[in-house]
Every structure is written in C-alpha cells, then in structure tokens.
Amino acid sequence: MNHTPSPAELKLKQNISLLRAVIESTNDGILVVNTDGKIVCYNQKFISIWRIPMDIIETRDDERALSYVLQQLKEPDAFLAKVHDLYKRPLSESFDVLEFKDGRIVERYSKPHCIDEECVGRVWSFRDITKQESAINDLRAYQESLERQILERTEEIRKAKVFVDSIIENIPDMISVKEAAGLKFLRLNRAGEELWGHSQEEMIGKDGYDFLSREQADAFTAMDRAVLSSGKVMDIPEETLDGGSRGERVLHTKKIPIYDGDGNPEYLLSISEDITEKIQAEKNRIRLMEEQISRIALEETLRLRDEFISIASHELKTPLTTLLIQVQLIHKLVEQATIIGISKEKLLSMLNTSIRQVDRFTSLINNLLDTSSISAKGLTLHRQDTDLRKIIGDVLNRFQAELSSVGSSLEVHVLDHIIGQWDRARIDQVVVNLLSNAMKYGEGKPIEISTESTPTVARIVVVDHGMGISRKDQERIFDRFERVGSVQGIAGMGLGLYITRQIVEAHGGTISVVSEPGNGSKFTVELPLHGAHRGDVTPRAYGDAPVLH
Fold it and tell me: Which DSSP state fits 543?
C-alpha cells in the first residue's frame, strides 16, 4: 500500500532537498567526518580541490583519504598534526591556510558537527582562494547553478534536515531565507547572526525595519522586491550592513528568488560574504604600494644626485686642470719667449687648446644649466628663420681640431637653404651634441653628417662606425646621466643626448637611433619644416678645403 506523504513530510523533504542543493552548489569543498573516522558527506567541490580518486573516497575511510592528500601539500606534517589535534578536541573550531605544491592556496575551516548538543563528528570546509580576481565570475556561475538546482531539486531537500542544517550553520558566509510575501525572516545561519548582531530566534518572523534605520531598511526592501519581481538573480558587489556591536560591515551579496510549483516566488534566498577585511586589506595594500613607490622614487632621486655629483666633479675638474696647466705653461713660455725663441704658431696652438678646454667647460656648465631649466620650467625657444646648412657649417668649423685629435675623418652631405622656424642656438646645440657623441664613441673611424628635406620635415643624420649601442640601451641613452661607455673610459656626464631630445621635442620633432654593437650608430633628428625648399647636395670629405660657410 503506497504511503501518501503528509504535508509536514513534504515540507521536510522540500527543505532537505533545498539544503542539499546548497551544499552541492557552494563554492567551498565540504567534508563531514563522524567520530568513528568515517566520511559521512562530501561534495564535488571537495573532490575537485583535493583531486581524490573515487575508489579512495568511496571507501569512506578518512585516514586513507588523508594519506592520499598529504603528497599535494608543502607542509604535510603540520597539516596532519592539525587534523589529529582537532579530532582529539571534538568541540574545537579551527581556521588555517594550506599551501599546495602546485601553487594553489586553500583556506581550511573546521567546526564540530553537533546534534542536540552532542558532538557526532566534524565538518570541514575548504575554499580555494588562488584566483581571487575571478571570484566574482565564479560566484555568479555558482549562484546561477544554485538557482537552477533549487528549482530542479525542491523535492529532495527534507530527508536530512537536521544533518544539512548543521552544515549550513558552519558555512562561513551568511545565508538567510525570507518569505516572499512580507519579506519576514524564516532562516538565518550562525554567520548571519554574527553579522546582524542578533540571534536567529530574535529575527525569525521579523523584517529589516525591526533592526535597521528606515532609510537602510527601505533600500534593502527595494532590492528584495526588485529580485522577486524580475525573477532573476541579483549580484550586489558591495552593500553596507549595520552589524550592531561589530559596527558597519561590507557584504558581497547574491539574492535568489525561489519559486513554488506554480512558478510563483515563495522565498528569497540571500548569500552574503563579509568582505570588510578584504576591502581594508586592499586599501592597506594600495597604501603600502604608494609608500613603496614614494620610497623607491626618493632612493632613485638620491642615487641620481650622488651619481651626478660624482660625474660632475670629475668632468668639471678635467678641463679646468688641463686649462690651468696650459695657462701656466703659456705664462712661463711668454716670460722666456725671448730666451728660447718660442714661435707665434706654437703659442697660438697652445692658446687654441686652452680655448677648447674653456669651450668644453662652458658646454658642461650649459648642459647642467639646461638640465636644471628643463626640470624646473622646460625649454624656452626663440624661433626665427634659421638656415640649417649655416648652423652645421659653423659647428664643423669649430670642431676641426677635435676631429683631428680623435683621428676621425668627416664626410658631409648637406643640402643648401633648408630654412625653418627654429631656435638657432638650440639647433646649434643639437648638432654639437650629436657630433660630440659620434667623436666619443666612434673609435676614430669616419663620421658622416647629412641633411634631408621633405615639404614638411627637415632631417639631420649623424653616422659613426664605432662601438655601437645594444638594443636594450637605445632608449636609455636619452635619459639624464645615462651613457653607453663607462665613466672612467669616456668623458661626459650623460646629459648631451638627454638635452638633445628635449630640444628636438620642444620644436615638435623626434630623435631616433639605429645601432648594433660593433657596427656604429645612426642618429636621425626630424624637425617640422615650414616654407622650406631644397637645394643641391654636394658630398665632400672633411679635409684641407674650407668647410661650409
């Protein structure tokens, strides 16, 4: 004779089915072990986290399962000791973090499983926190799955109400159920009691207006009604709850409507994670990151200052020392000129050397002043019609002696009458810095300087065939105090190319380099050109003939 379930039995079965669906749908791995060391209950998430073969889990032997999972952990002895310790203290609760050898991080919660105040086992829950950034998507998928399973498995919930209730009470997230008609609380787990600051007995049959300010209760009620009317899951990334003595708590909540057999909303299920500490931790992490960035910036500033002082003291001392020696020698020779018959040419040569040292010293000082000006207020340009060929010719005339001293020949390919609206002194400085750089790193090999022109752009190209620049250094050399050669081997403070780029970019142009170690470097400057016209180009080797005029 078939037994017709009573309404009470049907209600019990419905609740048990609902609670089982919650267990299976939770994003935590759940394991329940009784006092005899037998596995009583587990969900698929637990199997997924620990990757235990079914032939082992089906034995229901907790010790065997423990032996299998130890090989996955970085600290298996500590893990096993904690398990045995908790089994010796059946009423104890525990939380810790496990590190897996494959890099996963899992939170482990453990609470006693009690029925009518009698401990009958232990509930373990495991949460994989390795991919926190994907938590929202995982939770959304979990809630959608939970909604589907709640609708599909309503008839299965009652069989183990007390058993499943115990598990729900130990889930670390707040779970609450309200009846759809009046939004009165029907169920609240322990996590919910802690968040609300009220016991379940105090809240059952009441609504938010009994515990919250009217403004907050209105907001909560409006969201609940919106979920019930839409029939869709609502994801609330952050909502604030007045937790009584615990103060305000920030929750990440999912609200899910639950329907009766006719498709009408009957309950409203809410699952809320307390993310207050996470938000505060993120704020602290950002603050620490900002402090670290500030500290690194300060350290870099101090390093650049010390490096600058070291380089500048060396570079400024070198031309001054040379100049002092030359002047002292000239003074002595002039005093003895009538005795030793020093020629006018000899004295002029020595004076020219002194002048070059003065020019070098002046150039270093100008670079320092330019660097200071750029840092403080940027470059000020005095634009006027400027003949690029005339600038290059002036520079090359000034550099004849230096070219001779480094042993580099010079090949010039310069167009006539490339005229643009530029700052003449600054463009002169660009040519000087590029030519000086080529002489420093050209290893005495030939140097080429040329110009090109389009209707809108003028180009200055300087090529050397020296040591070259590695790819990783090609952007760095345009920064302050950055150089290719060592400070001991090659003179300079690492400011020339930095200032050159600032000047070029102030004109609206660009500077680039193409280079390979051992094969020299090609620097190209492009400057916007207005109303320019091209002339003929006459290649000539730098030698005895006059340079450009």
Answer: S
Which residues have CB under 8 Å from 272's CB, separation 6+?
173, 174, 176, 192, 195, 241, 251, 252, 253, 254
The answer to whether residues 35 and 125 touch, using CB atoms and an 8 Å cutoff, is no
519-539 per-residue burial string, b: 16 or more CB within 10 A, e: under 16: ebbbbbbbbebeebeeeebee
Which tokens belong to 409? Answer: 């020949």
- The pLDDT averaged over each successive group of 10 residues in the chain (549 residues) is 75 80 86 91 91 92 92 93 90 91 90 88 90 65 78 64 76 88 89 84 88 88 90 88 77 90 88 88 89 84 62 54 62 58 64 62 58 57 91 87 83 90 90 89 91 92 92 80 50 70 91 90 92 37 34
**Beta carbons of 502 and 374 less than 8 angstroms apart:** yes
Q: Tokens 């979990």 appear where?
A: 142
**Which pair of structure tokens corresponds to residue 15?**
């609740």
**pLDDT in the model for residue 231:** 86
CB 415 within 8 A of CB 534: yes
**Six token digits for residue 246:** 């615990």
Q: What per-residue confidence (pLDDT) applies to 325?
A: 64
SS3 call for 329: helix
Give the separation between CA 175 and CA 346, rounded to whole angstroms: 99
Buried b / exposed e over 141-159, threshold 16 CB at 10 Å, is ebbbebbebbeebbebbbe
Radius of gyration in angstroms for the set of CA atoms belonging to the chain, rounded to a whole number: 41
User: Which tokens belong to 428?
Assistant: 């002169």
Residue holding tokens 């329907």? 259
The amino acid at residue 377 is K
Structure tokens at 232: 């869709």
d(CA 411, CA 131): 62
d(CA 93, CA 124): 10
3-state class (DSSP) for residue 8: helix
Question: Do 122 and 87 touch, CB atoms closer than 8 A?
Answer: yes
DSSP string, 106-149: EEEEEEEEEETTEEEEEEEEEEE-TTGGGHHHHHHHHHHHHHHH
Tell me which H or E stretch contains 274: strand 265-274
Q: What's the start-to-end Cα distance of the chain, in Å?
A: 121
CA nearest 380: which of 532, 503, 482?
Answer: 503
Instruction: Report d(CA 516, CA 519) in Å as an integer.
Output: 5
Which DSSP helix (H) or strand (E) runs through 473?
Answer: none
Three-state helix/strand/coil letters over 38-80 = EEEEECHHHHHHHCCCHHHHCCCEHHHHHHHHHHHECCHHHHH
Amino acid code (one letter) for 545 = A
Q: How far is CA 19 from CA 146, 167, 331, in A?
A: 11, 9, 104
SS3 content of the chain, % helix, strand, coil (to 5): 50, 25, 25
Q: Rounded CA gap, 20 and 398, in Å?
A: 91
pTM of the model: 0.37
The angle formed by the CA atoms of residues 127, 133 and 139, to the nearest 5 degrees, is 55
